[in-house]
# Entry
Amino acid sequence: MSKLQLSNDGNIKHLLTTEGLGRDLIHKIFDLAESFLNVGNREIKNVPFLRGKTVCNLFFENSTRTRTTFEIAAKRLSADVINLDIDSSSQSKGESIFDTVDNLISMGSDIFVIRHPEPGMPELIAKHVGDNVHIINAGDGNHAHPTQGLLDAFTIKKFKDRFDNLSVAIVGDIKHSRVARSEIHALSTLGVPDIRLVGPSEFMPTDMGQLDLAIFENMENGLKNVDVIMMLRIQKERMIGSIIPEDEKYSERFGLRKKHLLVAKKDTIIMHPGPMNRGVEIDSDVADSKQSVILAQVTFGIAIRMAVMSMLIGKNI
Ligand code: CP
# Structure
């Protein structure tokens, strides 16, 4: 997978997963994102990095944050943006996704941002397209959501400055979460020494045994002295055939409440990739507290997506 997403000179050609991305490359993305942070505060909110390029958003699943921030990021880079409405597209007449992509390439698309329920679909499309077309995985089933993993790690860097002394707890339905997978790979690569997974045993991943992860089934133990708490919703849409826990019972055991912050470090930050289910995995008084950086994650997501798209096109400075 990493071979497909890297070009011979080590730059990113497609972004499909955070797994296998090197530490230096991630820091390069962060440095570029840092330089883009203030573009949103300017009177004229754009830079010419993607002038003449066309970014095509293909979302086969719903999205609020990812689709919109990719559109904003592309526009701030001066790209033309196409948001294909899948429901009213010719997919309904039986056209394959590959034919759809080929047609959009014929119209001049340079970058495709693809969200699809099937794990591996962005990789298949990356294999299908030619050298001058770039694919960004915006979430494929429970597999990966690399720009979310990167923007979460970037948010941690902004608030905690370094990674090599941190304890990070990821709480909830990790098994069905592409966000958690992408975060875990990014944070491991960046050198976080203590990554904890907190939740019921049925929500623990079975495919990450190669990584050094601590598992907790109890909130108080799992959150003890942590620097970062990352909450996840129950991904009911990906739990086909599994028993879905009742919200109330789940919330009693694994919902984040004010009392839990007493066991974490005083300056712990609260994160959530969204969408939040208030009153289930997180209480409103925690989500809206001073320690919450949930909306900062969204803002930083624009800069990270600007950085990734610029690097795909070969514009790094
Ligand atoms: N975090 C995230 O992927 O949110 P959306 O589903 O709204 O894009």
Summary: Strands lie at 54-59, 80-84, 111-116, 134-140, 167-171, 194-198, 213-216, 228-231, 269-271. The chain has a mean pLDDT of 95.
